[in-house]
Design goal:
Layout (H helix, E strand, L loop, with lengths): L2 H27 L4 H13 L2 H26 L7 H18 L4 H28 L5 H21 L33 H20 L1 H11 L1 H6 L4 H27 L11 H12 L6 H14 L1 H7 L5 H26 L19
Length: about 350
């Protein structure tokens, strides 16, 4: 095994080991047994088929969002607006579920397709703001996140308001034909979206490694001005990266409304978009590591629900574990950059550098 590969593996595993050690120290500080805590988290995630399905149901949208963000980060774009793109996908899917008079065999594909369209269009607005009006994608994305939530609240409170009463702010439950079906009552996971997530994972990895588009994304992400001089259509490449990410995020949003909740409600994304940003930072834009990291996050979140009952520990410990993991990853990335600058080992850049100014074709 080459020295470069050993260093890659070491710097990927190091933040995980450090975060486990620090979490164990924190658990000891509050008078609990770290081994028992980790056992309960593992048991909570894998105690039966229903618990495993909860882990998978969180893994699916998180993996979709993370793979979409890999595309935009490769192009040097900080797509902070991914939460809004999830929400817009959920809104488009909700409209289809409420109003499209189609049989189930056609309705579900139409819902997913419209969700992709909604997410892509919302991401395209970020791209237009950046490439035409020189509004940085971070600012445009944050603004559009807020607007998508406002739009959802308006729709839920007015034209799509449930007439069944109650205090919950949500649309009426969708008709059964509009919902994604589960594999079985015990294993409550939708097979279609699971296959879509696996397909997106394989497709993004292939596109980034084996296609001209992937090469153009990398060129724009490294230096958009140089890429433009070399004939790369920088504006079109940036727009395509954002719209692909938006479409994938839209699928994740549709999964949340058509399977997880069966209705549209405020903040349907549940912070999954922002967690996807952390995943991409953690894997240093290496797409092959995304499913492993997302399953770790899903296990931590799914298993932490037993901590309160079994050990009288607050389930927010899962958030602490995630935060420590991200902090250790960022520190390790800094170490990797330092090694890159002081050695001759060629290590890919971890986080994309957003283009200072939008380049045009």
């Amino acid at each position: 095994m080459s020295r470069t590969r050993i260093l890659h593996i070491s710097l990927t595993v190091l933040p995980i080991l450090l975060s486990l050690a620090l979490t164990a120290a924190l658990i000891l500080a509050v008078g609990a047994d770290p081994r028992e805590v980790f056992e309960k988290v593992w048991e909570g995630a894998f105690r039966d088929a229903r618990a495993i399905s909860q882990v998978v149901n969180f893994w699916i949208p998180l993996t979709l969002v993370s793979m979409g963000l890999i595309v935009t980060f490769t192009a040097g774009l900080w797509n902070i607006g991914v939460e809004g793109q999830m929400m817009m996908g959920a809104i488009f899917a909700t409209w289809a579920a409420l109003y499209l008079p189609l049989p189930a065999v056609l309705l579900v594909p139409a819902e997913i397709a419209l969700a992709m369209l909604g997410g892509a269009l919302w991401a395209a607005i970020v791209g237009v703001l950046k490439t035409r009006l020189r509004v940085h994608e971070i600012f445009g994305g944050v603004a559009l996140n807020a607007l998508s939530n406002i739009a959802a609240i308006y729709l839920i409170s007015n034209p799509w308001r449930s007439t069944e009463g109650g205090t919950e702010l949500a649309t009426p439950p969708f008709q059964p034909d509009a919902l994604l079906s589960s594999i079985s009552p015990d294993f409550n996971v939708n097979l279609i979206t699971l296959l879509i997530a696996v397909g997106v994972l394989a497709g993004v990895i292939f596109a980034l490694r084996r296609t001209l588009w992937g090469l153009q994304l990398k060129a724009v992400g490294k230096n958009s001005r140089s890429a433009l001089l070399l004939g790369v259509p920088t504006t079109r490449t940036s727009m395509s990266a954002l719209m692909v990410c938006g479409a994938v995020a839209g699928i994740a949003g549709s999964y949340r409304v058509l399977f997880t909740f069966d209705t549209l409600r405020p903040s349907i994304s549940g912070g999954i978009g922002f967690l996807g940003l952390l995943v991409v930072l953690l894997v240093s834009m290496r797409a092959i590591w995304v499913p492993l990291v997302t399953i770790i996050f899903a296990i931590i979140l799914g298993g932490s629900t037993r901590l309160r009952v079994a050990l009288q520990l607050d389930s927010s410990l899962a958030g602490v574990m995630q935060g420590i993991l991200v902090l250790m990853a960022l520190l390790t990335n800094g170490l990797r950059e330092r090694l890159t600058s002081t050695t001759n080992i060629e290590i890919p850049t971890e986080t994309p550098q957003p283009t200072r100014e939008p380049a045009h074709e």
